[in-house]
Amino acid sequence: MTDEVAFSATGATKIYVDLEMEYVATLIERFSSISNGVQIIQAQPVNDIPLEEQMFVNRMSIKQLLETDWDVNIQEHVVTVRETIIDVDNFFDWYYVSCNICSKKVIPVDDVYICDACNKECKFPLVKYKIHLKVSDKTTVSTFVLFNVVAEKLLDTSAHKLFNRQSRSNTDLPARICGLSGKNYVFKLKLNSYNLKKRLESYCVSKIFLPDETPKIQYKSKNLSSDYEK
Predict the structure, then answer these.
(1) Owning domain of residue 60
(2) Replication factor A C-terminal domain: which residues (predicted)?
């Protein structure tokens, strides 16, 4: 790296370096004590539970899920369920168009997207996933919803790409989404008052795991050991 400094300008420019004047001297003195080095901030662990054990946290069936009572003191409750996708419900479509600023849904009026939340025109609307899954286990059935981040990881492609591959008149589900039917996954759900207090079954999925029962015995024995130590 050289000590040369290069400038690019469209008009005539004068460059002054370290002028010997009172104002410049004051600035140099003021900022001389400020470090210009890069400070590294260590990332804090967001979850102390190993990834392979997360799929067993608060494991329950759909029946148990539907019977879960709402506690006013709990803002959010995390559970996991292992279910089979029996169908993809396309009644509400598999995507929505969102504002690129606030991510709220926008609806076109005369081919112009207006965001009510931002109260202005959305010039760069985004296509995002919102997939309604019908899931089942040995106890009963329910509906889980996959939003953009989770669905994009599961399908390994963006909603924008799938949307552009279809003609505007085609309202069928893309083959990649249809292919989810029959698959078995462990779903991590975040329950809130929307689900528990109002008893609404559209559970939002925050993470999906491929089923692996290998760590299950270790996880259970670890919890038993912790209980005995208390």
Answers:
(1) 51-229
(2) 87-201
Total number of domains in the chain:
1
Query: pLDDT, tens digit, for every residue of 53-78?
Result: 888 989 999 999 888 777 766 667 88
The residues with which 188 forms a beta bridge, in sequence order, are: 80, 207
At 220, which helix (H) or strand (E)?
helix 216-229
- Per-residue pLDDT averaged across 159-184, rounded? 92
Decide if 135 contacts 84 (C-beta within 8 A): yes
Nearest in space to 77 (alpha carbons), one of 64, 68, 67, 86? 68
**pTM score of the predicted model:** 0.70
Integer-rounded Cα Rg, in Å, for the chain is 27
Residue 230 has pLDDT above 60, yes or no: no
Q: In the 3-class helix/strand/coil scheme, how is 39-75 assigned residue by residue?
A: CCCCCCCCCCCCHHHHCCCCECCHHHHHCCCCCCCCC
* Per-residue pLDDT tens over the stretch 42-52: 444 445 678 77
Whole-number Å distance between alpha carbons of 110 and 98: 17
For residue 42, is it within any domain?
Answer: no
List strand residue ranges (DSSP E) for 110-216, in order: 112-115, 120-121, 126-136, 141-147, 184-191, 202-209
